[in-house]
Please model this.
Amino acid sequence: MKIAVSGKGGVGKTTFSALLIRTLDEQGKKVLAIDADPDANLASAVGVPGAEDVVPISDMKELIYERTEAKPGSVGGFFKLNPRVDDLPEALSAKLNNIKLMRLGGVKKGGGGCICPESTMLKALINHVILARDEVVILDMEAGIEHLGRATAMAVDKLIVVVEPGRRSIETARHIRQLASEIKLSRIAVVGNKIRGDKDKEFLQKNLPDFDFLGFIPYDDALIEADLDGKPPFEKADDAKAVVKGMLDKL
Model:
């Protein structure tokens, strides 16, 4: 099972991804977790030991040079477009129980995007984990689907968009679906988060009437307390855990 998770910043996308990953781990599944959001910290949300020491792949300049034969930060010129990456999940993952976690990091890019060694390396790694790995893969992405090409999109079992009751979150969900349609990715579901009651559910369903809702996670002070205490949400939020487990049963 390959799942990509996206959504507007601040909606709880990484918290949901972490709950998903830890629930799968508890069920005995082998999970490869990919933090593809430069501004997120999936490792600490999952509870990986030494989370602050997980180095993004995009910062591993020597590795990128070795695999692409080009200096990181360079644009243009010649470099390998299909660098070897199949050994990286084992070699560079942080581990917790049945979970392997990798952090991609970000690539500084100009107006038209980046054709550079770092970007090529990250795309090759995403292609590998989506197309060639036999674990469950959970991909925590930015508020978009920049890391997915058409080939990888075809292999993603579900793109889950996390939304909260709010106009900007709804607009982001629609934008993500438009981007997904351009690469023929139609297996999209929505998760409502920070739901205070029926009014919030109805608001989301009314404004996203043609989306498939996977479920709704209630607003929970335990999630805030977990963040304040520096604890993984899985260890604090029993209500959210139960809801996520139900979503996995549906998937």
